[in-house]
Amino acid sequence: MLDRWSLIAVKPPLRSIAKQMLRLGISANHISLFGFFIGMLAIPALALQHYLLALLFIALNRIADGLDGTVARLSKPSEQGAYLDIVLDFIFYSGVIFGFAMAAPQTNALPAAALIFSFMGTGSSFLAFAILAERLKLNSMSYPNKGFYYINGLMEGTETILFFVAMCLLPNYFPILAWVFFGLCILTTTTRVIGGSYTLAKLEKQSAE
């Protein structure tokens, strides 16, 4: 929901850094893989309850996630790059929640499991529609620079980052934050399934006519 505004705000600094990366011969895929490795370090940091350190790893991962796409657009976007970007993002998101579950299993395990379950809904509804949108040659007007059709939703990347920051700064409130996040993800999945189904049915009807 907030991505369209946050992307505008971070675009100029990311573009400046990306140009420097290209001069150094650093590719978008290199940044994606490096960012993923840094992001995975958040899991043991969370498990050991080093929440501020974990927040640093999460922030670096998100910066890398913004940089890889910018570098790709300034050079030559590839299907491999788009694939790595989305797959590694989803693994990272679930990994962070897994880290919180290990930090305090007695209080965090159930809400963490519920939240990862809800991630399956947001992720599958997002990716399934992207596959069909590519087949039907649909273009996303909200996110024209994405390497795939980006279907909107209540919970997107910016909201996820904000929840992760809140969880790291207020780890004792993780169960409450996770349940709120869970509810919003379920709402996002519901709207995407309904909206996506309606859009596809409408397109099929139009093509039949």
From TrEMBL:
Q: Which residues cross the membrane?
A: 31-60, 81-103, 109-133, 154-174
Q: Which InterPro entries match?
A: CDP-OH_P_trans (IPR000462), CDP-OH_PTrfase_TM_dom (IPR043130), CDP_ALCOHOL_P_TRANSF_CS (IPR048254)
Q: Name one Pfam family in it.
A: CDP-OH_P_transf
Q: What Gene Ontology terms describe where this protein resides (cellular component)?
A: membrane
- Kindly list the biological process annotations in GO that this record carries: phospholipid biosynthetic process
Q: Could you cite one Gene Ontology molecular function of this protein?
A: phosphotransferase activity, for other substituted phosphate groups
**Keyword set, alphabetical order:** Membrane, Transferase, Transmembrane, Transmembrane helix
What family does the database annotate?
Belongs to the CDP-alcohol phosphatidyltransferase class-I family.
Protein's recorded name: CDP-alcohol phosphatidyltransferase family protein
